[in-house]
Amino acid sequence: MTALIERLQEIVGSGGWTSDPQDLKPHLTEWRGVYEGRTPIMLKPRSTDEVVAIVDACAENNTPIVPQGGNTGMCGGAIPDESGKQVILNLSNLNRIRDVDAENFSMTVEAGCILAAAQEAATAAGRYLPLSLGAEGSCQIGGNIATNAGGINVGRYGTARSLVLGLEVVLADGTVMNSLRSLRKDTAGYDLKQLFIGSEGTLGIITAASLRLFPDPGEMATALVGIESAGAAVKLLGGLKTKLDDRIESFELVSRRVFNLVEKHIPNATIPFAEEYPWYVLIETATGGDPQILENALLQEAEHGRLLDALIAKNSTEAANLWRLRHSIAEAERQEGKALKHDISVPLSRMQEFLLKGDELLERLRPDARLIAFGHVGDGNLHYNVVLPRELAVEEWVAEGERITRALYDLVDSFNGSFSAEHGVGQSKRAYLASYRAGPELNLMRSLKNLLDPANILNPGKVI
Ligand code: FAD
Ligand code: 2HG
Ligand code: ZN
Questions:
Q1: Predicted local confidence at residue 1, as pLDDT
Q2: 341 confidence band (pLDDT: 50, 70, 90)
Q3: Which atom belonging to ligand 2 lies closest to the Cα atom of 333?
Q4: pLDDT band at residue 291 under the 50/70/90 scheme
Q5: DSSP line for 56-93
Q6: For the chain, how big is the Rg over CA atoms in Å?
Q7: Tell me: the pLDDT tens digits for 140-198?
Q8: CA-to-CA distance for 349 and 352, rounded, in angstroms?
Q9: Which is the closest atom of ligand 2 to the Cα of 330?
Q10: Average of pLDDT values for 102-117?
Q11: What is the enclosing helix (H) or strand (E) of 257?
């Protein structure tokens, strides 16, 4: 190992690696402190050539590589195991914006580019990169693509996958697959880039991406709406879609309990209604600076009884305050205590039925558990997180967690839903992939992994 470490240090040069325990600490555990690993070294290459040389060296020595972006992932995918033998390949120094082509509505960025920096570069060129999520100030484009991130405007623009026009990927054998083409139409053979999107570092290391940009959607109108049930949210969305069509940028559902948590843990966070409602929806529409369009649509929906109350932000500060409430949920939940995270999806039309069945399930399994439900309801994607009583001993917490999660995923499966809608599989859902994708799907996934990484050096122990 010593010879390999020296070779790796030489490849990246000074400033391109660290073995210092203090420097490594934040890279060895993830956001919530659920997973912790060890590593002999973290490498921070500055070029694709350096990534290639690292992969070559590690492949020769059969040493596993854990790609790491902003380390904001929710499933432990960017954390090495406890063996102390896995090398972290951190992409943050590979962060240039190679090109913004306004006329072609595209940009080419390196994997370590922070999402917010890529958004800003697009805006500076009069274009719009729509991918947006609470962690956008620290997550990276490579991580977003590797997890096929969703976020708050999937309904209009799709997940990260739909924004990728081309990729540059270093494969496990050290070759570079360069499909960095900024084309909207290209039927030349298999669309190989799709394999790497959502593969969580197990099939290749993404070093750069060509991304699809959009026209600037202009000023937004933002509203917080109080509603009776998640079912009412689905009906409201249907009603608004017929009136506003693809002007709906975001449609986020939040339960009252979740907003109460935000008020409890986040300084100066207040739900701006005099009364409390069972559920809320945060809506953002691209209405060209005329909030009246959204207001009229909401008034018509109110006449149909699809909402209880509504408040439209009067200016960008009020809108930002509403979004702060939404984006603080994960942090508020973390402060409340470790929750069982379930990012699931079911067909939109069955959301209400699913929630009712879920309530029954929790009541039966663990009446003292608390449900933290919120999410991207327009995409049928809910964060169905569950908080267990604090007084449980660790072993009991783990056992109860597994029991509840398994029962919940069975329920999701019975709705033909997905146990992993948005955050990926990583370490936390690996066993469930083996159950819920068993058969030809899992076999094909395994064959692809064996083909692309026969020695299993790319992020072993994750996903598959
Ligand atoms: P990391 O956490 O560093 O890595 C994630 C996975 O990708 C790991 O398996 C890693 O090995 C792999 N990887 C990273 N970079 C590369 C690369 N260059 N090549 C190959 N593999 C790579 N997610 C959503 O989808 N929607 C949300 O709304 C959302 N909101 C969030 C809000 C908060 C407050 C937080 C903390 C997280 C949120 N997330 C959300 C989860 C997370 O931000 C996303 O999964 C994000 O895409 C991860 O990016 P990252 O750069 O931090 O990746
Ligand atoms: C969000 O939608 C993120 O805010 C995080 O995907 C979800 O904390 C979670 O469970
Ligand atoms: Zn989410």
A1: 81
A2: very high
A3: 8
A4: confident
A5: HHHHHTT--EEEESSS--SSSTTS--TTS-PEEEE-TT
A6: 23
A7: 999 999 999 999 999 999 999 999 999 999 999 999 999 999 999 999 999 999 999 99
A8: 8
A9: 8
A10: 98
A11: helix 256-265
pLDDT score of 325: 97
Helix/strand/coil for 66? strand
Q: Residue 12: helix, strand or coil by DSSP?
A: helix
d(Cα 453, Cα 204) in Å, to the nearest integer? 8
Cβ(259)–Cβ(225) under 8 Å?
Answer: no
pLDDT of residue 294: 95
Residue 289, pLDDT above cutoff 80: no
Question: 444 pLDDT band (50/70/90 cuts)?
Answer: very high
Q: In 266-315, which residue ranges form alpha helices assigned H by DSSP?
A: 291-303
Nearest-10 crossing angle of helices 256-265, 329-336: 80
**21, 27 in Cβ contact below 8 A?**
no
Q: Are 126 and 146 in contact (CB under 8 A)?
A: no
Q: Among 287, 234, 228, 233, which residue's Cα sits nearest to residue 256?
A: 228
Q: Please tell me the number of Cα atoms within 13 Å of 261 on its side-chain side.
A: 25
| 331/137 Cα distance (integer angstroms) | 14
Strand 42-43 versus strand 87-90 pairing type = parallel
Q: Is the CB of 385 under 6 A from ligand 2?
A: yes
Position 303: which residue type? E
**Cβ < 6 A, ligand 1 pocket:** 31, 66-74, 77-78, 91, 111, 133-135, 139-140, 142-144, 146-147, 149-151, 200-201, 205-206, 330, 422-423, 426, 459, 462
Amino acid in position 120: E
pLDDT value for 307: 96
Cβ-based neighbour number of residue 365 at 10 Å: 14
Q: What angle do CA 60, 8, 204 make, to 5 degrees?
A: 60
CA 35 / ligand 1 centre spacing (Å): 15
Look at strands 65-68 and 87-90 and give their pairing.
parallel
Q: Give the three-class secondary structure for 340.
A: strand
Query: Does residue 76 contact residue 123 with C-beta atoms inside 8 Å?
Result: no
Binned at pLDDT 50, 70 and 90, residue 290 comes out as confident
Distance CA 374, CA 372 (A): 7
How confident is the prediction for the chain on average, in pLDDT?
96
- H-run or E-run covering 100: strand 97-101
Amino acid at 193: K
Which of the 8 DSSP states describes residue 330?
A: H
State which amino acid sits at residue 64.
P
